[in-house]
Amino acid sequence: MSDKPATLDVVGIGNAIVDVLAHADDRFLEDQGLAKGAMTLIDATEAETLYAAMGPGIEVSGGSAANTMAGIASLGGKGAFFGKVRDDQLGQVFRHDIRAIGVQFETAPAVDGPSTARCLIFVTPDAQRTMQTYLGASVELGPDEVEEDTVAAAQITYLEGYLWDPPEAKAAFIKAAETAHGAGRKVALTLSDSFCVDRHRAEFRDLVDGHIDVLFANEDEILSLYDVPDFDGALQEVRGKCDIACLTRSEKGSVLVQGEEVHIVDAVPVEHVVDTTGAGDLYAAGVLFGLTNGYELATAGRIGAICAGEVIGHMGARPEVALDKLVKEAFG
């Protein structure tokens, strides 16, 4: 166990992606054969074809764990990120953006192979987002790029479920988790999407049981993980599998479980929901910031709700208002 004080709140490990967001209607989704509300993996050819069919878009650096790190920085926290980009234009955009918001990012870019990942996001009038993702260079992240000193310096290492697929990425996760625990730190995981859980249910269960201290999941994801028909059943299944489970339920708010403690946190009212992209990522940012800065679990959940409420009020998955100011206003 490390006797050195942590110099970082959170280090995130995930897909380094540039998001391209555009408004679309249900007819467009039907014409393109897209499953509304889902995240679907596509290849380079499909990405080019679909991009050409999109309406005017907004390009912003994204990726689930990277969005979470952006939220932590906006809250005033200290963070770092490991993710793989190519040495191309989108890779330069990603590197610039994440560093500009105050997140440490030192992963070397790939000099050959697939281009930087991008996620084509179609936002319908009901604020649902349909994501078509080309993972590109992001899945090239391997254990050699997980810097042990950085992981050991962070209170919590945060793993993105979307990245759990290629063998090298899995090895990177396990190395990071073992390094963190060896240094006396904590490990968190977001399940990311029910399609991820459906594909890797047994492996995710093993990961949660053996390596995870803090779990983030929405209602669909936790139902899929434990293959149960209702939320209460899933809550009972996850209890005791990890130290803390943070379960989000959209407009119903969230439930945070730690041992015998159960905290129900209301969603923050939003005048007009514009785009739900990033809601779970920013919720995780608030909770992780709270946990690493000495707040009680219920308060950390409230901070998460505030962050999620901010991001769904505009296009894009990163905050437009300084989250530390919103939290100070909410808590007086």
Task: Write a structural description.
The chain is α/β, with parallel strands linked by helices and 332 residues long. The protein has one domain (8-15, 62-109, 138-331): UDP-N-acetylmuramoyl-L-alanine:D-glutamate ligase (3-Layer(aba) Sandwich), CATH 3.40.1190. It is 40% helix and 22% strand. It has helices spanning 26-32, 44-53, 64-74, 89-100, 148-153, 167-182, 194-211, 219-226, 231-238, 279-292, 297-311, 323-331, and strands at 8-13, 17-23, 39-41, 58-62, 79-82, 104-105, 117-123, 129-134, 154-160, 186-190, 214-218, 244-248, 254-258, 261-265. The strands form 2 sheets. Strands 6-5-1-9-10-11-12-13-14 form a 9-stranded mixed beta sheet. A 5-stranded mixed beta sheet has the order 3-8-7-2-4.
Question: At the first level of CATH, what is the class?
Answer: Alpha Beta
Binned strand content: 15-25%
CATH superfamily: Ribokinase
CATH fold-type name: UDP-N-acetylmuramoyl-L-alanine:D-glutamate ligase
The CATH architecture designation is 3-Layer(aba) Sandwich
Average pLDDT, all residues = 94
Comma- or semicolon-separated keywords:
single chain; 332 residues; alpha/beta; UDP-N-acetylmuramoyl-L-alanine:D-glutamate ligase; five-stranded mixed sheet; 14 strands; 40% helix; 22% strand; globular
Write the topology of this structure.
Blueprint: E1 8-13, E2 17-23, H1 26-32, E3 39-41, H2 44-53, E4 58-62, H3 64-74, E5 79-82, H4 89-100, E6 104-105, E7 117-123, E8 129-134, H5 148-153, E9 154-160, H6 167-182, E10 186-190, H7 194-211, E11 214-218, H8 219-226, H9 231-238, E12 244-248, E13 254-258, E14 261-265, H10 279-292, H11 297-311, H12 323-331
Parallel strand pairs: 1-5, 1-9, 2-7, 3-8, 5-6, 9-10, 10-11, 11-12
Antiparallel strand pairs: 2-4, 7-8, 12-13, 13-14
Helix pairs in contact: 3-10, 7-8, 8-9, 10-11, 11-12
